[in-house]
Design brief:
The protein is an alpha/beta fold. It contains ten helices and nine strands. A hairpin with a 2-residue loop joins strand 6 and strand 7 (218-221). Helix 4 (48-60) packs across helix 6 (118-128).
Length: 274
Amino acid sequence: MYVSSLRQHWRLTMAFTEGEHYHSHFNPRVYIDSFYVCPSGHPDENCLSFVLRNLSETFSSGRYKGQTLIEVGSGPTVHSVVSACDHFQDIVLSDFTETNRLEVQKWLRGDEGCFDWSPVIQFVSELEGKRTPKEMEERLRRTVKQVLPCDVRHENPFHPLVLEPADCVLTSLCLEAACKDHPTYQQALKNVTALLRPGGVLIMIGVLNETFYVVGEHRLSCLPLSQTFVENALKDLGFSIQKNDILPMPDRDKNKVSDCEAFFFLIAEKMKNV
């Protein structure tokens, strides 16, 4: 009852916080300090280990590898590509907001005071048992070749740059925060998936039926999505769903940082004739 009332109040009183809002209202360090300081994530959601385990299983399978992986909407984070760095020669990270990109670049350079990703990397290292945390960290820093500005609302999210088609495109918690309605989301999904070569793989991490999330003192919008809507949108674009793992939020009424119903981890392959 509390969550539904809060969701209704949010919809009625606040305009959707599109990308431009993030320039002045999104603090990247508060975000990562809140949600990524340990492998379990924020205590109200405990979803980060679900994401890290799925990423590890996906890339450790050896099925998805190649020259280039592009992450669209990395935010100020690197956790999504820790497991991927052994399986791709070049990784491109990207985000709409300059402060997010700067936060990533600080870590890549090893600047003093940069965010400490070692607990997350240690967790992945123990899952996979192939490299020490230090080796994984060094490999990741070598493999990330670019951190670029992007806007998923553009037909080419990296305009004016034109990137070579990627073997893998990864996007996490991005489209539902950037798109104010379902048609905009469908177009953004088309824009993002156009970055893939035929036969390439899309990995999506997202939330279901969420309308807001909180970073520090700021509430930010989220487009509520159903599992069926996301899967149908991808099928319409010529994708074959390989996996869609759902993590429900059991204590939704106690969650103070979002009204998320569930997290999803989805793998979809682009048909070779698309």
